[in-house]
CBM6 domain-containing protein
Amino acid sequence: MRCFRHIATAGALFASIANATLQIIPGATWTATNTGKHIQAHGGGMIKVGSTYYWVGEDKTDGSAFQNVNCYSSTNLVEWKYEGALLSRTSSGDLGPSRVVERPKVIYNKSTKKYVLWMHIDSSNYGEAKAGVATGDTVCGKYTYIGASQPLGFQSRDMGLFVDDDDKAYLLTEDRANGLRIDLLSDDYLSVKSATYLWKDSIEAPAVIKKDGVYFMFGSTLTGWDPNDNKYSTATNIAGPWSAWKTFADSGSKTYSSQTNYILPVGNNFMYMGDRWVSSNLMRSTYVWLPLTISGTTASMKNAVNWVVDASSGSMTSGPSENTYEGESATLAGGAKSVSCSGCSGTNAAGYIGGSSAGAVTFSNVQSSATTRTSIRVKYLNGDSSQRFADVSVNGGATQRIAFIPASGDPNSSVLNAGLKSGTNTIKISTSDGTWGPDIDRLMVPQS
Ligand SMILES: *[C@@H]1O[C@H](CO)[C@@H](O)[C@H](O)[C@H]1NC(C)=O
Ligand SMILES: *[C@@H]1O[C@H](CO)[C@@H](O)[C@H](O)[C@H]1NC(C)=O
């Protein structure tokens, strides 16, 4: 059974094994610090203001129809606070019931001092194919919706934005009838001015970056909610010529089961942001964020179970080695008991967590060689179709609520970000409100 997968082949970005610190754990449940729920920012983008990152994406709590364009903030790219919705469902119109509002992206116009939000606006059967725009005075405040149209008269589905070094901004837009387009926006960023480039290829989920004078366009082929091997094309002029499409993740991995939504510059490096869509229950879709290596005209990306990003310098290093602690071997109290679980390590898990008798599992021998704030992977099962929750206390401290999106068969991970002290630590998992928590297969705790 695999406990920890070393990242031996990922090249320079993974040159050193980092000290334990907060980690990005792709595909896990990511709990917002102030909601206790799985982050809802799908198909999103990122904008940095000062030293804070703002993550803007789709709320899929109740399925595919538009609910909110959500905004979360973080200074370390791991711990995210819910700030509010930029736009929310209205009683009618473009943002009304049963509407499609997807792939929101925000850029800032220094002259008008407006944050400008572009998004895919559509009817529930995707028959309208428009790009919509809204503006805000603060990055995570309420935005004013302006309207939507087909840019230059062409269909527009998945979209992205790119601001070049000269402050010119571009809409990246999928025109199903003709291909993938780059269109120049007007100076105020509020309308589309002219066509810049067209690929006559069927590519969606577009994202552009530029490094050392080379533009990279990333995107996926059209396989609906299912992932495919995403691709990129390069150019030294945004108007082309652009190169043929190439893959950047391991061939056949379907981009590690994800679809591009944004590429984030961090320092001089880049982080891939992808969605691992779960079409049957979109709220449980997860986020696959990985270091993207850009060199010359080449982009490449390796998978990782966990990895460490320095949100200010952009350094990206491999995750720490972990110790494993089995739920069924920990102290079970208040009705919690060992339950059999074929997909679990040790074929058992700690079950009956929470409930009316506040079942609890306590791991009292959790070792750390450092006093550090770190990310612990809680391997769990949740056979429901909605998320469960647990209240976690480390070394007897205040509880924090973490979420567990549905997972049956094989355990999934939920990320617990917590402070450990050097030596022996105690981690207690229970619920305080009578609800059932997840079954806990094991904890995977950084050694140092
Ligand atoms: C949960 O784990 C299963 C099995 O490892 C995996 O197939 C699935 O993609 C995971 N779910 C999510 C939402 O990542
Ligand atoms: C913002 O909008 C103005 C027009 O109002 C334009 O002149 C300017 O170049 C835009 N971009 C930036 C980055 O300020």
In short: The first helix runs from residue 254 to 257.
